[in-house]
Specification:
By secondary structure, the protein is an alpha/beta fold. Among the domains are: 10-105, no CATH class; 327-469, no CATH class. The protein has helices spanning 27-37, 46-51, 62-67, 76-87, 92-105, 173-181, 201-208, 226-229, 240-252, 272-283, 302-314, 331-334, 338-350; strands spanning 10-11, 44-45, 120-121, 124-125, 129-133, 136-139, 188-191, 219-224, 256-262, 287-294, 318-324, 360-365, 369-379, 382-392, 401-405. The strands form 3 sheets. The protein has an 11-stranded mixed beta sheet. A two-stranded antiparallel ribbon has the order 1-2. Helix 1 (27-37) packs across helix 4 (76-87), helix 4 runs antiparallel to helix 5 (92-105) and helix 11 (302-314) crosses helix 13.
Length: 469
């Protein structure tokens, strides 16, 4: 195995052939990857290439699927169109122009991110902030709007494709802090992106320090994939010690600091430096909470989640969320039916101890809020999904239950119909959250799910169980 690099080297469409292992791929594969990466972002670093991908298993290797463009990420017609342009030697500007209408069809900002979540100040939108839930504000610092590697499924792919109108970003730490200071219900501030951990510590500090004097801010969270994709950030980078000191200062000022670690597969926890990173972060007083979406071709297997959650608990991290792949970008390639996702979640959940059962899922982060698929039951002779609102745009919705008709092929909230003859779910009464053109159940073009290693039913659904009382 190659030595683990302590300095970042990136690869993308422009230097794809410089990755030695890529020589294993065919010329057609390379053209396809360049065509897809003209539409959706592609960036990978040498650590991921050499230490997380098993090149003997490519293209099926889950980490390869997670980080490299796959032809199934685009429709056949869009893929073939872009391939023809790449083969013809079309210049970058022509490729970009051809990609734009495809990108716009891929729902670049789901769940009302642009229209509903950005607060107003002085009659103008406040850039770099999303405020969907009463207690939590998301900050998008401009220097953090890239990543050490891009996930191929990423629901924030629109941040990285060169369209300024699709970006969330702010260069004004004091203005962001002023907004939060005026919102006494806000207890949690989440730095997100991109990945805030691409910033040098002195830059991150400029955004963090104004928050430390705000009494009602109790917790600072940092959403990051760096613990998996570049753990050297916490161990060997030239300002790694400064970063840990910043975490310690946050704790000394009476705030909690939590790293929301995005781990998609247990492989990301297997290197020595990945484990050292968690240990060092925890030694500085920060909590590591872990989350990831359920992604076909990557982790749609209960054994993967079981091993991942067990390893995280052993390393002192706290399993937090299993998400449903959002309805954006290449979701048709990566998404798993809700019924199959529930089967995977419950199978893995049963195999871990109580300390691993802190993970909630499968959860949809959709326009009304975070909606948990809590189970399947038969009520009054009707087979239904029980849905629970974990977090709501309206705080009064939190922990409320709704029932949806069971649909083995449904993959998102818009695919579900209210049960028991109801015409709408309770959140549909809010005009900002209603879905008047709710999709009819369909299985067209969808690949049946095979739940690998599950003791549950062969059709990918979970066994019926009682919901509530």
């Amino acid at each position: 195995m190659a030595s683990i690099p302590s300095r970042l080297r990136f690869f993308g469409p422009h230097n794809l052939e410089e990755i030695p292992q890529v020589s294993r791929l065919s010329a057609d594969d390379l053209v396809s990857m360049k065509a897809v990466s003209a539409v959706l972002p592609f960036r990978v670093n040498e650590y991921v290439v050499n230490h997380l991908i098993d090149w003997e298993r490519v293209p099926e290797d889950p980490m390869f699927q997670l980080t490299f463009p796959q032809r199934g990420m685009l429709s056949k017609s869009d893929h073939d169109y872009m391939v023809d342009l790449v083969r013809s030697g079309a210049p970058r500007l022509e490729l970009r122009a051809a990609a734009r209408p495809i990108q716009m069809r891929l729902n670049p900002h789901p769940a009302g991110q642009l229209s509903l979540n950005v607060p107003m100040e002085g009659g103008e939108r406040l850039p770099g902030i999303q405020h969907k839930y009463r207690e939590t504000v998301l900050l998008f610092p401009t220097p953090g709007q890239t990543c050490h590697s891009y996930c191929s499924y990423c629901f924030r792919w629109a941040q990285f494709v060169g369209v300024e109108d699709l970006k969330f970003a702010s260069k004004e730490p004091q203005r962001l802090a002023a907004y939060i200071r005026g919102k006494p219900d806000v207890s949690d501030v989440l730095f997100t992106g991109g990945d805030p951990m691409v910033m040098k510590t002195h830059v991150l500090r400029r955004y963090v320090e104004p928050l430390l004097d705000i009494e009602h801010v109790a917790t600072i969270r940092i959403g990051t994939k760096s613990l998996a994709y570049w753990p050297h950030r916490f161990v060997h980078d030239d300002d790694a010690d400064d970063l840990l000191r910043l975490f310690e200062e946050i704790r000394e000022r009476g705030k909690q600091i939590a790293l929301m670690g995005h781990y998609s597969h247990w492989v990301e926890l297997e290197t020595d430096v990945a484990r050292q990173a968690i240990e060092r972060v925890r030694s500085a007083g920060a909590v590591v909470r872990t989350q990831a979406p359920l992604i076909r071709h990557v982790n749609d297997d209960p054994e993967v989640w079981t091993r991942m959650w067990r390893t995280q608990v052993r390393l002192g991290a706290v399993p937090y969320y299993m998400f449903v792949e959002r309805d954006t970008g290449p979701s048709d390639y990566f998404s798993v039916p809700l019924a199959g996702g529930l089967a995977i979640y419950e199978s893995a959940y049963r195999r871990v101890s109580g300390l691993g059962r802190t993970a909630r899922g499968p959860s949809m982060s959709c326009t009304p809020g975070k909606i948990l698929v809590d189970g399947v039951a038969e009520v009054a002779g009707e087979k239904v999904f029980a849905l629970k609102m974990l977090q709501g745009r309206d705080p009064e919705w939190v922990n409320r239950i709704a029932f949806a008709k069971y649909d083995a092929e449904a993959r998102w909230i818009d695919d579900l119909q209210p049960a028991f003859g109801a015409s709408e779910f309770f959140w549909d009464a809010d005009p900002e959250c209603s879905t008047p053109l709710r999709r009819e159940p369909t299985s067209k073009g969808r690949i049946p799910l095979k739940v690998v290693g599950s003791s549950d039913r062969d059709d990918g659904t979970t066994p019926l169980r009682r919901v509530g009382s």
